[in-house]
Task: inverse folding
C-alpha cells in the first residue's frame, strides 16, 4: 500500500514539474515573438556618419620607411530612427592609408543618441614615427607629387538599440570615411597657421 502511494506521489510531482517547465518555455517563446514583431515593425536603421572636415598638421615620411601623421577630424553621427535610440560603446577612431593604420586609435566617449539626434566628435589623431613598408613610402611620395592623397578615417566599436525600456545586446559597427587630401584645385585646403583645413561633408560607409 505504501509503495503504491509513494509511486502515485512521484507521478504527480513529475507532472507538476513538466507543467511549470512548459509554462516557462511558453512565456519565453511569447516574449521572443513580441520582441521580434516590435523589431520588424520599427525596422531599426543604422546610423549615418558624415566626415565634415579634417585639419592636417603633418603627413610625411620622417625617416627611412617611417611615417608621421597628425590631424584633427570632425565626424557627425545621426540617428535616423524615430522610435529607436542608439548607445555607442567602446568606439575607437584612427587614420588609415592604403589599408595600413597610420595613427594610434583615439577613444570616443560612450554616449547615447536619442531619436533623430545628431552627435559631433572632433578628436585628434596622431601617429609619431610609425614604421611603414617601402611600398607605402613610395606610394605616399607619388600621391603627394600628384596632389591627391586618400586617407581613410575609420571608426570601430559597438552599438546597442534601445526601444522603450528594452536594450539590445552589442552589435559590431565599422565606419569608413574617405578623405581626399588635395594640394591642388578644386579641393585645396585652407591654410590655418602650420596646418591645412579641408572641408568635406563626405558620407561614410557604415556596417552594423
Result:
Amino acid at each position: 500500500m505504501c509503495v503504491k502511494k509513494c509511486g502515485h506521489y512521484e507521478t504527480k510531482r513529475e507532472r507538476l514539474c513538466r507543467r511549470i517547465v512548459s509554462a516557462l518555455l511558453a512565456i519565453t517563446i511569447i516574449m521572443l515573438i513580441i520582441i521580434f514583431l516590435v523589431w520588424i515593425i520599427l525596422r531599426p536603421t543604422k546610423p549615418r556618419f558624415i566626415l565634415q572636415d579634417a585639419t592636417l598638421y603633418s603627413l610625411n615620411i620622417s625617416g627611412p620607411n617611417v611615417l608621421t601623421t597628425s590631424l584633427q577630424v570632425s565626424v557627425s553621427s545621426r540617428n535616423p530612427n524615430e522610435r529607436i535610440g542608439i548607445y555607442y560603446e567602446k568606439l575607437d577612431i584612427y587614420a588609415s592609408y592604403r589599408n595600413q593604420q597610420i595613427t594610434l586609435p583615439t577613444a570616443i566617449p560612450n554616449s547615447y543618441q536619442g531619436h533623430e539626434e545628431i552627435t559631433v566628435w572632433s578628436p585628434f589623431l596622431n601617429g609619431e614615427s610609425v614604421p611603414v613598408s617601402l611600398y607605402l613610402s613610395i606610394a605616399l611620395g607619388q600621391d603627394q607629387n600628384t596632389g591627391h592623397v586618400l586617407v581613410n578615417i575609420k571608426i570601430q566599436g559597438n552599438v546597442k538599440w534601445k526601444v522603450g525600456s528594452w536594450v539590445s545586446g552589442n552589435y559590431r559597427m565599422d565606419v569608413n570615411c574617405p578623405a581626399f587630401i588635395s594640394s591642388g584645385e578644386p579641393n585645396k585646403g585652407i591654410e590655418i597657421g602650420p596646418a591645412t583645413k579641408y572641408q568635406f561633408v563626405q558620407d561614410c560607409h557604415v556596417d552594423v
About this structure: Residues 48-207 form one domain. The mean pLDDT is 87. The first strand starts at residue 48 and ends at 63.
